[in-house]
Amino acid sequence: MGLGSCMITFFGAFLSGFLFFLPISYSDKAPDYTFVKEATSAPAVVYYDYIIIGGGTAGCPLAATLSHGATILVLERGGSPYGNPNITNIANFGPTLLDTSPTSPAQQFTSEDGVYNIRARVLGGGSAVNAGFYTRASTRYVKEVGWNHNLVNQSYEWVEKVVAFKPEILQWENALRDGLLEVGVLPNNEFTYDHLYGTKVGGTIFDAEGHRHTAADLLQYADPRKITVYLHATVQKILFRYIPGRASPQAYGVIYKDAYEVRHQAYLKRNSNKNEIILSAGAIGSPQLLMLSGVGPAYHLRAHGIKVVVDHPMVGQGMADNPMNVLLIPSPTPVEVSLVQVVGITKFNSYIEGASGLSLSTSLAHRLSNNFKRFLSQTEHPPFRVLPEAIARAAEMVHGIANRTIRAGVILEKIMGPLSTGHLALRNTNPDDNPFVTFNYFKEPEDLRKCIEGMRTIIDVVNSKAYSKFRYKNMPVEALIDLMLTLPVNRRRKHANATFSLEQFCIDTVMTIWHYHGGCQVGRVVDKGYRVLGIDSLRVIDGSTFYHTPGANPQATVMMLGRYMGQRILHDRIVHGSKKKN
Fold it and tell me: What pLDDT, in 10s, does the model give residues 440-472?
């Protein structure tokens, strides 16, 4: 494993443990999905009404919905989330990030900005590997996008019946909530799925027994007679043809490979001109596959020897990732293990969240322990000093780390938007490989302003009376900031003034919260019905179409979108069929 991979392994698993760990048992009993099969069992050629590329957070609810009016094929490049304790059991979240195998459900990549990241590679998509926080988009977001408000609410409710739950709020999360209220992130909105300014408890996709419920669970809504899901089915390209009398090329099939590298073909049936191929491969996969299929910036495609079907210069543009910055706060008292459950939604457009407790692998604990020891050894020197008694107590935390437990909390801020955007470009023509992705974190000054305000709010919470039980009184915030600067949170250069400049701290320690989006945006690549502009029978329905992240966490809205568009497409199909009969 190279240095970059080691860094990803170290801090990715470290932070993930904070954000995602909960000591529970798990149930590995898979649903009775007779229609989910390995692609190695697929015929050489198949025909369906709809071919959905990607069985992820949007693809699963979309497929389940469409199956009630058409035949559906879902091609998922990853495996099943069921029976995998690293997915089902949140206590084993860390090993998911440590898994660098070709079939890992979390495929690692590092953006050109030097920030470590992952993309999901599993049925259920990001909902199978994330923190589980569930919250809806704001009513303003829904209005700006132009969705039907009533259908949106119905679609959220359809999702929530299966995957959303009210979490149990424990001691540390209570302190965080009260701290947010104390410093003015008001009002107290209690528990709600809704996006409201102030402090609230959000939903979770973990049930009372601690079992994860992913978008794959929404396939229980499907008509099993009309749907087939192939796993480890990697689409190589979308096929296009020209039909006399039509100005635009038409998508009519795909070529995909199974786990043994055997090529298969899937085609749209010719029984209706409403049949379509739908890309739901996510913000990385969807623009990447469009380019590999000949739809993208012509000069870029030709540079990779790809035949241009449509010169689409906006494919891969508008890539954005909500920057995240955190403070790790050692605690003088024991903390429970908690997930992200509380969020402060501020008026200056930053989200404040947190989690506590961690269980580590032996090797990871050893490395983190050594890092913290080096940090403590520097505390006798400027730019700050920590009193001896505080160092002694913090040393207890080091001992705990070395024994695979940690007594600390982490409070993070994520900015809304963001305004800063970048682009995606092909690395090569292999769909299994990650493309080049640039997010241009903090390119827009407004994003940096939001981060600074968010960090100030975190500092106020740390200094609040409500949170005082869980921080060392004699360890100044400057020490906590410097601690973050000692950790390998990314591959970016660290500047000496980052200890006392929040602006520099935001830039130097920026991380991802895995909410990236863009690349196939509405109005640029697809129309308001998510049809690819200039191409017939092809849509993109996933987070790649977003300009901004919807709410504190996008997964609820991405699942909702799959259901929402499934209903819209079925409605259009039925209306078209009725007119044709008449």
Answer: 999 999 999 999 999 999 999 999 999 999 999
515 is catalytic: yes
Determine which one of 232, 312, 515, 548 is catalytic.
Answer: 515
How many H-runs (helices) and E-runs (strands) does the chain carry?
Answer: 16, 26
Look at residue 359 and tell me whether its pLDDT is greater than 70: no
Is the alpha carbon torsion for 13, 18, 23, 24 positive or negative? negative
Q: Are strands 310-311 and 295-296 parallel, antiparallel or unpaired?
A: parallel
Chain centroid to Cα 383, Å, comes to: 37
- Each residue of 120-178: pLDDT tens digit? 999 999 999 988 899 999 999 999 999 999 999 999 999 999 999 999 999 999 999 99
Taking each helix axis from N to C end, the angle separating 362-377 and 13-20, rounded to the nearest 10 degrees, works out to 100
Tracing tokens 């149990």 back to the chain, one arrives at 168
Q: Say how many Å lie between the first and final Cα of the chain, rounded.
A: 65
**What are phi and psi for residue 265, nearest 5 degrees?**
-125, 140
Give the span between the Cα atoms of 355 and 412, in whole angstroms. 9
Strands (E), 242-322: 250-257, 263-268, 276-279, 295-296, 310-311, 317-319
pTM of the model: 0.90
The alpha carbon of 244 is separated from its chain's Cα centroid by a whole number of angstroms, namely 42
Residues with Cβ < 8 Å from 144, sequence gap 6 or more?
none
Closest of 369, 351, 281, 257 to residue 550, by C-alpha:
351
Comparing C-alpha atoms, which of 407, 343, 342, 20 is closest to residue 168?
Answer: 342
Listed in sequence order, the DSSP H helices in 278-421 are 282-292, 298-303, 362-377, 388-402
H-state helical runs in 129-170? 139-145, 149-163
Asked if 218 and 30 touch (Cβ cutoff 8 Å), the reply is: no
Beta-carbon contacts of residue 408 (< 8 Å; ≥ 6 apart): 18, 328, 329, 330, 331, 335, 356, 358, 397
> Which DSSP string do the residues of 415-459 spell out, in sequence order?
ESS-S--EEEE-SSS-TTS--EEE--TT-SHHHHHHHHHHHHHHH
Contact (Cβ atoms closer than 8 angstroms) between residue 62 and residue 563: yes
Distance set, CA 582 to CA 74, 571, 575, 578 (Å) = 32, 17, 11, 6
- In a 13 Å sphere around the CA of 519, the CA atoms on its Cβ side amount to 34
CA 376/CA 554 separation, integer angstroms: 38
Instruction: Judge contact between 401 and 361, C-beta under 8 A.
Output: no
- DSSP code for 380: T
Measure the CA–CA gap between 53 and 39, rounded to whole angstroms: 13
The pair of structure tokens assigned to 155 is 């679609």
CA distance 290 to 316: 9
| Closest of 167, 77, 73, 89 to residue 124, by C-alpha | 77
| 204, 51 contact by CB (below 8 A) | no
Q: What is the DSSP code (8-state) at residue 510?
A: -
Greatest alpha-carbon pair distance for the chain in Å reads 86
